[in-house]
Amino acid sequence: MKAMATGLSVCAPRRQAGKPLTVSFVAPCYNEEANVEAFIDAILGLWDRMKTDIPSLGSCEIVLVDDGSSDPTWDLIRSASRRRPEVVGVRLSRNFGHQAALLSGLMTARGDAVISLDADLQDDIEIIPAMLRAYVSGDEIVFGVRSDRSSDTVFKRMSAHVYYRLLGALGVDSVYNHADFRLMSRKALDALMQYGERNLYLRGLIKSFGFRTSTVEYERKRRERGQSAYTLHKMIVLGLNGITAFSVRPLRLFFYLGMTISTFSLGYIIYSVVMAFMGVTISGWASLIVSIYLIGGIQIIGIGILGEYIGRIYIETKGRPHYLVEEIARNEEMDR
Ligand code: UDP
Ligand code: MG
């Protein structure tokens, strides 16, 4: 992305005091035909309610990114943007994946505060007033944290738990049970624009900024319409991105493992030689086979891990854009 490549060296100041607060809602949509209308209605309904509670609120926009859907998602977004001035549609040229689609939405958003969430309404929008209050009181980033994952499958819950533990063990600073439901201030967004990396793991990157943050808990709901597009493969890729983007400890671990195995082998060599001098033959077909397979397996895993890092270096050096925008649908008559 151009803005990412250029980068900004100075973060924008916080919104001028007294000026109405503009808010952008950003949702990536991949085959969300069943959710687009419901999402817009839910957000606009919430907005109306919030306006009475939070007097500093000005206008809002809803940025919906069509991540190369094969269903009529884009037609729905485009027609909604014609009917409602708040709706801004971004159509990517193909499916670039959730993180890239989200990034494109964040880069398109113009609000003082930008809230990212899933289009399927699994993220509980009722905590958004609390997020905005945290922003008004000075937090630059507010993370939505899942207090309850009972709507997820047992597999998803277990793998998420193991993964967060693993991240912690590898020294990656992450927010436990936070996906991409979060509020970011303009200052945090400007900071994000300074990062030019291709390997996108937004939740980790944003946590690393060091700005004032807070968390708001919510219960993740079940998906009511449409289907999850997050396949196991996509989850693994995202997980690997999270690790490789922030930690080189897996490489170091293999160094230590190699050292340990070599030390043991040296001991065993000395033992074998001494035994040979003493005329004792060590029978060893089983131990030989086991150690060949064991060391072979460890080596291949090590090469695989090395490959994950090298592959990412390769991708980074090409500096290709994260996504390409095919079309933007925005009602220019919108009063901002
Ligand atoms: N999504 C996307 N591109 C993709 C996959 C998903 O933009 O390639 C969007 C999807 O429309 C939804 C959000 O990312 O708004 C989360 O996806 P999903 O609900 O499938 O994931 P889950 O909630 O099952 O983890
Ligand atoms: Mg979902």
TrEMBL record:
Its main location: membrane. Keywords: Glycosyltransferase, Membrane, Transferase, Transmembrane, Transmembrane helix. The chain crosses the membrane at residues 255-279, 285-310. Pfam families: Glycos_transf_2. It is found in: Membrane. It comes from the Bacteria. It is a multi-pass membrane protein. Residues 24-191 form the Glycosyltransferase 2-like domain. The keyword Aminoacyl-tRNA synthetase does not apply. This is Glycosyltransferase family 2 protein. It comes from Albidovulum sediminis.
